[in-house]
Specification:
Elements: H1 2-21, H2 28-41, H3 47-59, H4 61-64, H5 66-72, H6 76-112
Helix pairs in contact: 1-2, 1-3
Length: 114
């Protein structure tokens, strides 16, 4: 459990450190998540190592969205003014992600001969 916490927090801090050093407009937590993804994909970190800490986080993930949802109430006037654009951007970005992941999955399946 301690190793899992250390790996996840180290990736988060590394991401925040990279954002502080480099002029990238991406939050440090996202960079940290990408670092963790790269470590898991390259098998430098095994999934079993982070599972004891990540499984409870994923199970209770909806609780983490409550502060963000409450924070949206501060921008209700912006949401009312640009609601259609925001919904369109969410729709098209979700569609783009689904298409990209679907094509990537097809390519991965093609390599295995499935």
């Amino acid at each position: 459990m301690l190793r899992a916490v250390f790996i996840i927090v180290a990736c988060l801090w590394a991401g925040k450190g990279l954002v502080a050093l480099l002029p990238v407009p991406i939050p440090g937590s996202i960079i940290g998540m990408l670092l963790l993804f790269l470590l898991l994909s390259s098998k430098l970190v095994k999934a079993d190592w982070v599972m004891p800490f990540s499984a409870p986080l994923i199970r209770h993930m909806t609780l983490l969205f409550i502060p963000a949802g409450v924070g949206l109430m501060n921008y209700l006037d912006v949401i009312k003014a640009h609601g259609l654009v925001l919904v369109g951007a969410c729709f098209f970005s979700t569609l783009l992600v689904l298409i990209t992941i679907g094509r990537w999955h097809d390519r991965q399946g093609g390599r295995r001969g499935d």
